[in-house]
Specification:
Blueprint (H helix, E strand, L loop, with lengths): L9 H24 L6 H11 L6 H14 L10 H22 L9 E2 L2 E2 L1 H5 L1 H20 L6 H11 L4 H11 L6 H27 L3 H28 L2 H4 L5 H5 L4 H5 L1 H22 L4 H11 L7
Antiparallel strand pairs: 1-2
Length: 310
């Protein structure tokens, strides 16, 4: 993505990435420890996935979108950056719950996640299911803690995670296994199961920063396309990467007959398609935000959604 008059060095971006990931990790730990009355085994199972590493893409998208929407304005935002951090952690809890459930034998049946045994392998299927349920509930309790200003954000995340979003996308993914791949169906699956929550992260950051409804909608459109690129990259990694690099099982999509761009058009064209839709999402994102270092940082982050090796 070309510079729009702001400058962000690679070193500055790398430092910000490390610092903000540490911030998210620390706050996730505080929120999990602060929940009273949790059985010890359940708390350990929740922490296993929630605190077990990860790229923290969704919370960073939310935080850095909050920053970008605040750039150049002195109006008091509906929610402080500390509140936006809690919202970012809530979105990551939703993501973590989805990973726990996706890895179950009844779903994708994965034994590895981020190079470690998956939650159900360590704690058993029943506790893993409860850990996912508990993380989802804790996510919405965290959003509710933002007060009246967080109501819109709560609705955004709920829709993105629900039957017309991530959960519905996962069902369509299951229903599509073994079927003939068609472009429209692949796009719909990817938009729902991956794009919806990525878009909600951007929209939630903007909402909590006090952005206009028009800007929030534009950021949602950008996020959906970025989600398509992110999922296309995941499919490519499954088809081409080594398990030791990505930290989970590979070559599973083809074996399960999943609907992916790789299956439809092959690796090379799937890679080109991921880049095209990713750049389109970046262009929409750039158009929706005023030029600033914060916006440039966010745009730099989004390039990593499809240009990655794990």
């Amino acid at each position: 993505m070309p510079s729009r008059g702001t400058r962000l060095s690679e070193a500055c971006f790398a430092r910000a990435l490390v610092a903000e990931r540490r911030l998210v990790q620390a706050r996730l730990g505080v929120l999990l420890r602060g929940e009273a009355g949790v059985p010890a085994r359940l708390r350990r199972a929740m922490a296993h996935t929630l605190l077990g590493g990860g790229k923290r893409v969704r919370p960073l998208l939310l935080l850095w979108c909050w920053d970008a929407c605040r750039a150049g304005t002195r109006r008091t935002p509906p929610v402080s950056r500390r509140g936006a951090l809690d919202a970012a952690c809530a979105v990551e809890m939703i993501h973590a719950y989805s990973l726990i459930h996706d890895d179950l034998p009844a779903m994708d049946d994965d034994a590895l996640r981020r190079g470690r045994p998956t939650c159900h392998v360590v704690f058993g299927e029943a506790t893993a299911i409860l850990a996912g349920d508990a993380l989802q509930a804790l996510a919405f309790a965290t959003l509710a803690g933002l007060g009246p200003a967080g109501a819109g954000a709560t609705a955004l995340v709920a829709r993105a995670a629900g039957p017309g979003g991530m959960a519905g996308g996962q069902q369509e993914d299951l229903d599509g296994q073994g079927r003939r791949p068609r472009p429209a169906r692949i796009r719909r699956i990817h938009a729902l199961k991956t794009g919806a929550l990525l878009a909600a992260a951007l929209q939630t950051g903007a909402t909590l920063a006090g952005a206009t409804p028009r800007r929030v909608a534009a950021l949602g459109a950008a996020g959906t396309r970025l989600g398509l690129a992110f999922q296309a990259a995941d499919d490519l990694l499954d088809a081409t990467a080594a398990a030791r690099v990505v930290g989970k099982g590979v070559r599973k999509d083809d074996a399960a007959g999943k609907l992916t761009w790789v299956r439809l058009v092959g690796v090379d064209e799937a890679r080109r398609k991921a880049a095209r839709v990713g750049r389109a999402g970046q262009a929409l994102l750039a158009a929706a935000l005023p030029p600033s270092v914060a916006a440039e940082r966010l745009l730099t982050l989004t390039a990593t959604l499809w240009e990655r090796d794990r």
